[in-house]
Amino acid sequence: QVQLVESGGGLVQAGGSLRLSCAASGRTFNSFAMGWFRQAPGKEREFVAVINWSGDVRYYADFVKGRFTISRDNAKNTVYLQMNSLRPEDTAVYYCAASRGKYALPYASSESYDNWGQGTQVTVSS
Prior knowledge:
This protein is mainly beta.
């Protein structure tokens, strides 16, 4: 079992930046992939980004490519989501998730992850 705690959300103007963090505990951090998902009011949870166990494989949803960057620091048991050029449509609760193995396959499916954080609110004003 992995415990995940997100932080770094908040209110930002369109065009601004935020960095989300997700601290993990309970399992050896470099043994599993980590993902970020988000859920806006009235919408389904959707995949944002994933990073494999070592940090050298990353995938992004099309709507964040070029704006968001996922990274991890295995020494600190933490995964990050750097969000730049934020848009009002990025407003959502952002969740980090831990997969069962070194790669989350299929990476965009929430079924590939078995531990979730509590979420952090990101609000982008226009």
